[in-house]
């Protein structure tokens, strides 16, 4: 859980993330930002969460007090009262000299932003805009979350150095191309309604963690056993755990629904059984805290 350092009617909230030591300054309204921007320096905040659309006024303060030099992460996530899209310009982002992480949620536009101009960028989360795919081929991005990607495959990732990949509500029918990600270690897929072909993941030699949610087309996952280096496997629905329990490096095996209703196979591996029971008893909030990036 995050420690709340300060809040005023939650217009401005500063949170300390215990797991990584990140301190965030979040403002849902410009007036709250203007009133409490000094907290960015006082608490040495390295993450900025902006939930209002008046970016020019905010930038004046950020630039004047040299906050732009200390911010390494910036997230744009419109608050409920915001009716117009938050339009993020390249000029705004370039003011931040040390940006390593960016997030663009729904209701945020980034027209004209050339992500290749941010050579320290290692983490990118965005709702995909087919008119701006400038992040494709970025050499330093290691963590990539794509929301509502319209591409039918992942062939475009060739040459990227992605270690953690998260795909949510994407239109792809195949994971073809994922094999080009030679450094991929963890994969998370959510609500991939059109996805049919998952077999290419077997070709990812370093991939050892996979989580798939909201996907019930496949229940027979025995093809995963063709890869022996799995550490964690978490699925939506599976017919039986039996064929995955032989994986010698596996430490965590979970499924929201097990069709055979028989957990006796898990008893052959007490450690996995204990972890399975622990995860089953977690609250939604606790599960979220443990999610792969």
Molecular structure report:
The strands form two sheets. A 13-stranded mixed β-sheet has the order 1-2-3-4-5-7-9-10-11-12-13-14-15. Strands 6-8 form a two-stranded parallel ribbon. The protein folds into three domains: 1-113, no CATH class; 121-207; 224-293, no CATH class. The chain is of the alpha/beta class. The model has no long low-confidence stretch (mean pLDDT 88). Helices cover 15% and strands 25% of the residues. The two termini are 16 Å apart. A hairpin with a 4-residue loop joins strand 2 (12-17) and strand 3. The protein is globular, with a radius of gyration of 21 Å.
What distinguishing features does this structure have?
293 residues; single chain; globular; 13-stranded mixed beta sheet
- Structural class designation: alpha/beta
Radius of gyration: 21 Å
- The global form is globular
What separation lies between the terminal Cα atoms?
A: 16 Å
The share of residues in extended strands comes to 15-25%
Number of domains: 3
Q: Please give the order of strands in the largest beta sheet.
A: 1-2-3-4-5-7-9-10-11-12-13-14-15
In which range does the helix fraction lie?
10-25%
């Amino acid at each position: 859980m995050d420690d709340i350092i300060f809040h005023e009617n939650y217009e401005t909230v500063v949170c300390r993330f215990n797991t990584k030591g990140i301190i965030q300054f979040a403002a849902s309204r410009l007036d709250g930002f203007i009133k409490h921007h000094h907290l960015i320096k006082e608490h040495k905040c390295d993450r900025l969460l902006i939930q209002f659309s008046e970016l020019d006024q905010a930038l004046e303060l950020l630039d004047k007090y040299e906050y732009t030099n200390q911010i390494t992460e910036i997230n744009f996530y419109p608050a409920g009262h915001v009716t117009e899209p938050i339009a993020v310009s390249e000029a705004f982002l370039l003011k931040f000299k040390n940006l390593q992480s960016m997030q663009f949620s729904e209701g945020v536009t980034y027209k004209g932003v050339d992500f290749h101009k941010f050579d320290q960028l290692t983490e990118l989360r965005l709702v995909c805009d087919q008119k701006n795919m400038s992040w494709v081929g970025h050499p330093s991005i290691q963590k990539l979350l794509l929301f509502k990607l319209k591409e039918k495959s992942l062939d475009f990732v060739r040459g990227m150095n992605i270690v953690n990949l998260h795909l949510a509500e994407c239109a792809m029918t195949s994971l073809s191309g994922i094999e080009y990600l030679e450094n991929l270690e963890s994969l998370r897929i959510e609500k991939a309604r059109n996805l049919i072909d998952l077999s290419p993941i077997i070709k990812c030699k370093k991939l050892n963690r996979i989580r798939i949610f909201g996907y019930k087309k496949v229940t027979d996952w025995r093809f995963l056993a063709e890869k022996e280096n799995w550490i964690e496997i978490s699925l939506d629905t599976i017919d039986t755990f039996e064929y995955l329990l032989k994986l010698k490096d596996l430490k965590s095996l979970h499924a929201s629904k097990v069709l055979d209703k028989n957990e006796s196979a898990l008893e052959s591996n007490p450690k996995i059984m204990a972890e399975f029971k622990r995860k089953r008893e977690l609250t939604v909030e606790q599960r979220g805290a443990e999610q792969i990036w």
